Amino acid sequence: MKRIYFYLAGMLVACAAQNSYAQNLKVPQLSSSQTITQELGLGEITLNYSRPNVRGRKIFGSLEPYGTVWRTGANAATIIKFSDDVTINGNKVPAGEYGLFSIPGKDEWTVILNKTAHQWGAYTYKQSEDLLRFKVKTITHSEPIETMTVQFNNVDQTKCELEVKWENISFSFPISTEVDSKIMTNIDEIMNHDKKPYFEAAMYYYENNKDLKKALEWITDAEKMSPNAPFYKVWKARIQLKMGDKAGALATAQQGVKLAKDQKDDEYQRLNQAVVDQAK
Question: Which one is the CATH code of 180-279: 1.25.40.10, 2.70.70.10, 1.10.3720.10, 1.10.10.10?
């Protein structure tokens, strides 16, 4: 009996040790995870997904069948989060967190935003929870794409494209956000305060084709705080040039060139000289 007791006790200790080792064992995931963040407008988009590899397999139409909902990645469903309201492929999407699913097809895919962001794969996916579905055309590539990749392309202040590519196909769709009304309201409010963002407001008006007279007034106010800064000269000259005042732009940019030379600032000497050349 003692022998049996010691044998069983030894087995329990061995099993406990094995379980302990198993719990502490860490190995690389077959599909590595990636989180990417893209600024857009006044907010940002965050996307988290796992990146499967082809590893010699036939993926679309085989491992991932046509006509079947796919997690758009590996492991947990791909999650996309918007800090502000956006428009996706012409559809309004409230700020929030969503599961990004898709349905592969031979030439056309369905992209899905599902209101249940956190789920494993597509095993508990419910179409009733879809916020949005839309079709996209795919592009076929001659060079294989071993590791699935999601990235943001063609990014500017208020719009971008989200691209998904793997195996030999890719697709993309547009995302945009509206910020002009918020910024214009914010500028009006802040300009009533003692500390006024003259330069930032002038730049927004200049870049977005607003009231250029107001932009010139503000850049002139900003210039007064640092009258010897070639930085302000180049922007004032650009605004004048956009207004059609070539003589004013020429005079301002020439002042900027001289200031930059005196300060041995090669960058703003070059930038002011560029406006001089345009004004001439």
Answer: 1.25.40.10
